[in-house]
Amino acid sequence: MRHRIPWGLSLFVILFAVTGASARQVRATRTQVPPRIDGRLNDIAWTLAESTTGFVYRGVGLPWPAFNQTVVRVLYDDEALYFGVACYEAQAGKIVADMVHHDDPLWLDDSFTIFLDSFDDGRSAYMFVVNALGTRYDAYFTQDGQYIDSSWDGDWKAAAVIEEDRWVAELKIPWRVLHYVDPSDGWGIDFWRNRVPDDESSVWSNLDTNLYKVSKFGRLVGVEDLATGVTASFVPYGTAKRQWNDVEDAILWDDPSLAKTGVWDRFSGGIDLDFRPFPAMSIVGSINPDYAQIESDLDELNLSRDELYLEEKRPFFRDGKSLFDLPLELFYSRRLQDIYYAGKVYGKLGGLRYYLLDVEGTVADKAELTYYRGDWWRERFNANVAALRLVHDVFESSAVGLTAVNKYQ
After folding, report:
1. Rounded to whole angstroms, how far apart are CA atoms 149 and 212?
2. If the chain, 409 residues long, is cut into consecutive pieces of 10 residues, what is the mean pLDDT of each piece?
3. What does the pLDDT read at residue 369?
């Protein structure tokens, strides 16, 4: 039996194939009044923004238009990029949205993803995902997705609302969470929509089977006269603590004063510094940082001789660490425990990505154990640790790199 393809769809495929030689474009519109991020596209600013649609099925091999279309609008001001997304849905009652925690696996829900190649290098991109409940997921990947750093967390906002025939999302991505080159020449960008009811996946530009093929992204244009001066921030803190100890603790801590009073007064303070001389470069410093608010690790039982490798959750070490994602791990930041002071500089200059780190603190990899009260306690040793990573892009999707690590104890 021969099936006829509707002429409208045939024309769409032909036009897409003809225009596919030049990347698709979406134009950002400057706004004087930013939209309120509430998941509703009722702000006046959205009516002034240009829209783009024409999503196609992913993995088909041909630019076949998706049945459930998506419309995207982009705004910007000197503070942030704004995205307004309308995901039309013929079966609104079957929308799947269960994930409610940040960085949950949103690809199991009806979700929408924005890829931003802010270095415009055709190799790396930021990834911002929101589901139909407004739950967020973010990551940064390099080398066309060979290395994905899901621990990267940016301070951005999103909200979503399910309506009668669609679900709508609004996203605000501040410039300060990105490292980037001048956007006036355009950036790489792509969109991916995932529909769970029919297992339907549609994309805006990239027809490659590799969803992370940055060189196949479209173009974000229209961002001009952006005020990107030097930015700096510092966050000081101070704490006071009184702890009542058993007299026997004086033996463990070798502190005679505890044996006399049983009371231990502790005062502590520190400061975090962040300096951005250029949008593509960060200089970060920290003195006696406080990580008490960081999410704790899950309990794990290790019955092997091998060391447990835990995810890095401390912001100082997490940001920029994707350069150290290598098959051979030469630098493992979780061995650095209490930090006295630390500094790092990282970013990108042309085709060169760089990361330089210096930390003074305690390390746990050579710690000895002391048995006390039926348990083993680690004694930590002071050390200075320095790490350098340089990566230069070569050819279409390859890179050469240098890694150097030094520890002085």
Report:
1. 13
2. 39 44 86 95 95 90 88 97 96 88 88 96 94 94 85 92 95 95 94 92 92 93 86 79 57 51 66 90 90 74 72 83 79 85 93 93 67 59 91 84 90
3. 57
Query: Which of 187, 221, 255 lies at the terminal end of a domain, its last residue?
Result: 221
Identify whether 211 is part of a domain: yes
Query: Which of 221, 245, 261 is the last residue in one of the domains?
Result: 221
Range of the domain at 259: 231-294+312-405
> Please, which residues have CB within 8 angstroms of residue 77's CB and are 6 or more apart in sequence?
30, 31, 32, 34
Residues 217 and 254 in one domain: no
pTM attached to this predicted model? 0.82
- Confidence (pLDDT) at 242: 64
Q: Are 179 and 347 in contact (CB under 8 A)?
A: yes
pLDDT for position 264 = 56
Distance of alpha carbon 159 from alpha carbon 181, whole angstroms: 28
- Counting other chains too, the contacts that 93-100 makes at CB distance below 8 Å and 24 or more residues apart are 94/197, 95/132, 95/162, 95/167, 95/196, 95/197, 96/132, 96/196, 96/197, 97/131, 97/132, 97/133, 97/135, 97/162, 97/167, 99/131, 99/133, 99/135, 100/133, 100/135
**Distance (Å, whole) CA 42 – CA 163:** 13
Is the residue at 81 inside a domain?
yes
Within this chain, do residues 186 and 245 fall inside the same structural domain, yes or no? no
CA geometry: angle 233, 234, 238, nearest 5 deg: 160
Compute the C-alpha angle 269/255/378, nearest 5°: 75
Question: Max Cα separation, the chain?
Answer: 95
